[in-house]
Amino acid sequence: xxxxxxxxxxxxxxxxxxxxxxxxxxxxxxxxxxxxxxxxxxxxxxxxxxxxxxxxxxxxxxxxxxxxxxxxxxxxxxxxxxxxxxxxxxxxxxxxxxxxxxxxxxxxxxxxxxxxxxxxxxxxxxxxxxxxxxxxxxxxxxxxxxx
Length: 147
Prior knowledge:
Elements: E1 4-5, H1 18-29, E2 33-36, H2 56-63, E3 69-73, E4 79-83, H3 86-95, E5 104-106, E6 111-117, E7 124-126, E8 129-132, E9 137-140
Antiparallel strand pairs: 1-6, 2-3, 3-9, 4-6, 4-8, 5-6, 7-8
């Protein structure tokens, strides 16, 4: 886990809408949001070849559709550490000092920790944690987890 560092502080999002807050965070960190099917983890756009570079208008259009889920592309500037339980998150944060500026997202089962890797790494499972990086995305708020 020594490849992980956050270099910029997360913005404070005062927006009343979570989708607007997600877009604000994406703009701040130069991240790419990806629309997903409602209540799903399936992308609605072709994103993996790097061609998905949405404009503000495209994002607003997708955001206006009911029940759209959202993800954020991982890679050189974002890795997501997926802790699938409260216990896993507690163990991880007790063992690894995270910067105060590190965005942490509460999920249906646990937490996602968004970090900037020192270098891009491949997505992998480490014990009970899943690290999302090159070639993957991480589901983001205000998404509704599929049942």
